[in-house]
């Protein structure tokens, strides 16, 4: 917090550079290029634009005091894979269904954004809530209150989207054993007339990360169709959304915030950043 307060005392241009530096980006390299979910930014001339884009992404985090799930009222310590899955899906929906120049800070199409975001509220009524994710995980033999692995969250999101208000607008395809079938994609997408989010559960090596696979991760984050990469290390999940050189950028769910009531009109949006 002291670092953030000191940044706010700087001139605007210096604030932009200091904020990016706080994120771990190399602001001193004039040739530094950053990719975030397929968008390309030149730090030397687009620092403010990059900051706006990053702050406009939806970051789902741990929540406290939510609607009781068998006596559990917080996902602190076990819900990070679920939250990164929610964030990836929400940011994909923004790309698919909102105007290309949409930004949550500027407020254009904000009611449509609120409607989609409300599907992720922390209640049993919200179709993509932490409660419904955890309960659907039980169908895949993961107890409520236990950490999800990447494969589990992929299959859970597929099941929940199919029962949600998004069902007619969006499909999820989960690759089995990292194999993608074009025929299955065609069937899933109603002959390519409905958008499909392709999820590929993949282990990047047995004991250490395979450098060749890691390079593929960097490449996919440069695609405009990218929804990001979920994972990190056992029992710790991040949403990787971009890259700068050999560094990956991620959204971190390991921050506890109070649950908000998304059934209220004009519920606050600053708590989702």
List keywords for this structure.
9 helices; 36% helix; alpha/beta; two-stranded parallel ribbon; 5-stranded antiparallel sheet; 9 strands
Number of helices: 9
Overall pLDDT level: 87
Strand content: 5-15%
Helix content: 25-40%
Give the end-to-end Cα distance, rounded to a whole number of Å. Answer: 16 Å
Morphology call? globular
Calculate Rg over CA atoms.
Answer: 19 Å
Q: Mind summarizing the main beta sheet?
A: 5 strands, antiparallel
Would you tell me the structural class of the helices and strands? alpha/beta
Number-wise, the strands total 9
Q: Helices and strands, in N-to-C order? A: HHEEHEHHHHEHEHEEEE
Please mark out the parts with pLDDT under 50 across 5 or more consecutive residues, or reply none.
1-11
Could you please describe the fold and organization of this structure?
This protein is of the alpha/beta class and about 270 residues long. About 35% of the residues lie in helices and about 15% in strands. The strands form three sheets. Strands 1, 2, 6, 7 and 8 form a five-stranded antiparallel beta sheet that branches. The longest helix has 18 residues. It is globular, with a radius of gyration of 19 Å. The N terminus is likely disordered.
């Amino acid at each position: 917090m002291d670092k953030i307060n000191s940044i706010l005392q700087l001139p605007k241009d210096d604030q932009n550079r200091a904020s990016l530096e706080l994120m771990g980006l190399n602001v001193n390299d004039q040739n530094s290029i950053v990719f975030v979910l397929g968008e390309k930014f030149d730090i030397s001339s687009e620092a403010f634009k990059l900051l706006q884009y990053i702050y406009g992404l939806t970051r789902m985090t741990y929540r406290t005091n939510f609607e009781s799930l068998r006596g559990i009222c917080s996902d602190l310590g076990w819900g990070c894979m679920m939250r990164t899955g929610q964030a990836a899906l929400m940011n994909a929906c923004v790309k698919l269904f909102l105007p290309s120049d949409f930004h949550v800070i500027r407020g254009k199409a904000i009611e449509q954004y609120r409607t989609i975001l409300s599907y992720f509220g922390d209640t049993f009524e919200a179709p993509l809530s932490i409660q419904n994710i955890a309960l659907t995980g039980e169908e895949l033999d993961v107890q409520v209150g236990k950490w999800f692995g990447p494969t589990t969250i992929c299959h859970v999101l597929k099941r929940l989207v199919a029962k949600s208000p998004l069902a007619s607008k969006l499909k999820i395809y989960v690759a089995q054993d990292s194999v993608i079938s074009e025929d299955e994609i065609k069937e899933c997408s109603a002959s390519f007339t409905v958008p499909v989010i392709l999820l590929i559960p993949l282990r990047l090596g047995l004991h250490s990360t395979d450098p060749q696979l890691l390079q593929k991760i960097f490449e996919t984050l440069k695609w405009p169709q990218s929804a990001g990469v979920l994972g990190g290390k056992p029992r710790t999940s991040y949403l990787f959304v971009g890259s700068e050189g050999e560094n990956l950028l991620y959204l971190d769910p390991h921050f506890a915030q109070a649950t908000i009531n998304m059934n209220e009109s004009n519920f606050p949006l600053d708590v989702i950043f």
